Amino acid sequence: MTDERYMLAALEEARACLSTGDIPVGCVIERDGEIVGRGRNRREGRHEATAHAEVEAIRDASEKLGTWRLSGCTLYVTLEPCPMCAGAIINARVERVVYGARDAKAGACGSILDLFWEPFNHRPEVIPGMLADDCAALLREFFGELRV
Q: Over the stretch 44-84, which tens digit does the pLDDT of each residue have?
């Protein structure tokens, strides 16, 4: 699979949020050509501030792989990670991060700040803007329906 195909899988996770009232953010984690983790935003449904797509996917991948170290993994997420999620990515030792839409309000991969360039013990490779228009359109659709 290519980066684009994994991002399409993350978009599927994000679309599943539309029926729950959660902001549509989806994430998948890939290792050795296989999706090993899936997550979506579940903050509203679980009444939990930490139920972000990336955290959910990291938990899923860690459980499936039997380790918290996600070396060799790529995380695909439809929205630029926030500081909490960037910290989780660093702590999980995710090798690559591919994200779609930028987040001008909470983005921690360059929009507000870039936690991955701070002198932490791990620094993932970051590929921004993968299917950014599709990811942003899904968010616009969600927020447009809230305003109606």
A: 999 999 999 999 999 999 999 999 999 999 999 999 999 99
How many Å apart are CA 141 and CA 65, to the nearest integer? 35
What pTM does this model have?
0.96
Using CA atoms, how far apart are residues 6 and 11, in angstroms rounded to an integer?
A: 9
Q: Strands, DSSP E only, in the chain?
A: 26-31, 34-40, 73-79, 96-101, 125-127
Rounded CA-CA distance 42/2 in Å is 27
Tokens 């290519």, residue located: 2
Q: How far apart are the first and last CA of the chain?
A: 38
Residue in the structure block whose two tokens are 């996917």: 57
Catalytic residues: 54
